[in-house]
Amino acid sequence: MRDILAGFRVSMGEKLMRFSFWPQSSQSWSDVLELARHVESTGWDGIWFADHFMPNAQDTSAPYPECWSTLAALAASVPRIRIGPLVTGNTYRHPAVLAKAAATCDHISGGRMVLGLGAGWQENEHRQYGIPFSTVGGRLSRLDEACQVIKSLFSNEATDFDGKYYQLSGAVLEPKPVQNPLPLLIGGGGEKVTLKITAKWADEWNVWGTVDTLKHKMEILDGHCAEVGRDPGEIQRSAVALLFMSEDQAFLERMRDSDMRQAAIVGTPEEVKEIVQAYEEAGVNELIIPDFTLGDRDRKIATLDTFITQVAGR
To answer: If you count Cβ atoms within 10 Å of the first and of the last residue's Cβ in the chain, which end, N or C, has fewer?
Structure first.
């Protein structure tokens, strides 16, 4: 499987950079599956899906398929690329139950699962579903404990854990994931706590932002790694940015002047290629492109195809 995946990556320098796709959650399952199969067949490396139950808006009636059910279906339906949540809200599931789901999806996919995990932030779905929300500090403390629980269940025959929030007694997880280890990705850019949790426990890390944002955050992460005695090279780094790619200069100027520029890639295909190279040179191992700004189906597919051929060189 690794040889197959490597064959679809492009070296933009000394490292091999992955390119992955993130379909918006408000789409139907059939649309998500069509897009996933399309990016799989055209050379992308991964597909990610958000773990939310509703929009973060006053109107919460839009259809939002459940994340882990969708991931299991993608694992069975799309045969090559990596699959994962970006990211699972830790507050929604007990970490032992989440570890079980992730290990099962790893078997369904043949060893292509990534467990993306974050502290949880979207208050409206907690409130509607009666899920305790807690403070930022409380959610981050739970995230830290959850990482320990998950790592232990993946690697040990039995787990005893007596934390403030989670307690396990002789807990087993069988079968173990296909991958050893199944990658644990931490999502978030909080510099004092989230990145320290990342330094302690993560195999991968993800954050939204421009090249400058990623450079700054990675310096902080490397500092936390030094504090906890971790080799920063053990943690793969991924970035998410909205894509505004066009030959229409007036449109591009509007996007460069908009509030979205703080987490966006804006330019012609040739300009976008230069920006992507700058991400790679900064140390980003994977770039994740959401379809939130890509328009209707035909325009979306055309933009994805232009990106993977003219920017990624597939």
So the answer is: N
Residues 93/124, Cβ–Cβ less than 8 Å: no
Do 105 and 75 contact (CB within 8 A), yes or no? yes
Report pTM: 0.93
Q: Which two tokens stand for residue 223?
A: 């500092």
HSE value, Cβ hemisphere, 13 Å, CA-based, for 94: 10
Q: Strand pairing partners for 85?
A: 49
Give the Å distances, CA to CA, from 36 to 30, 289, 305.
Answer: 10, 13, 13
Q: How does pLDDT run across 8-46, given as a tens digit for each residue?
A: 344 433 458 999 999 999 999 999 999 999 999 999 999
Residue 276 is encoded by which pair of tokens? 């992507």
For residue 10 the two structure tokens come to: 């492009």
Question: Please, which pLDDT band fits residue 178 given cuts at 50, 70 and 90?
Answer: very high
Does 3.20.20.70 match the CATH number of domain 2-311? no
3-state helix, strand, coil in the chain (%, to 5): 45, 20, 35
Q: Report domain extents, the chain.
A: 2-311
